[in-house]
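Researcher: Structure prediction, please.
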Amino acid sequence: MMKGINVHVDGVLPRIPKGGVGIELGVWKGRSSVKFHGYTNPKMLHLVDSWSVQPYKQTSEWTWEEYIQRYQTITGGFTEQDFDRYYDMVYNEVLNNFKDYSNVKVWRSTTDEFFEKSGVSDVDWVYVDASHSYDGVTQDLENVLKVINEDGKIFGDDFCDQKIQVKEAVKDFAKKHNFRIDNFNHSQYELKKQ
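Model: Predicted structure follows.
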């Protein structure tokens, strides 16, 4: 979940290969998804989000209490049930927005579950914006390597000092796997093979 709109994602669009298979990890309301779909006319676009409070109970980014405080004005309440109702509503909006597109598949699951169960492979591009914890980002990027093709592109959001766990995870992953980080349009990044 996030407050506001990812206005910086527009800088990613010209870098995404058109007509390919793409994955967006972390969809929330699907605003970026609409842009990815419209710009790339993908063969298939997989939209992955848990639309659930569960991942936030396990993150090191915030405590559960901090999470509740941060987002209760959006969800309309302080209880897990309030958050569940909100997430159900958002998930159904995303489903509705893409119901007429045979080249979009919406996955309501954690990113780990998606990579374990989807059978998706030979992916042309991935946009990583799900977890914002160091471990979560690292795990997502490691999973991406299992499905992306030889010429595939890896993009992501929140490579900035305000999201230091994301930034450090991306830097460490890039070093480990010999990628160069191209940081552009404020907080966007592309991992490029060296």
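Model: The beta strands are 21-25, 44-49, 104-108, 123-128, 148-156, 179-184, 188-193.
Researcher: Thanks, that helps.
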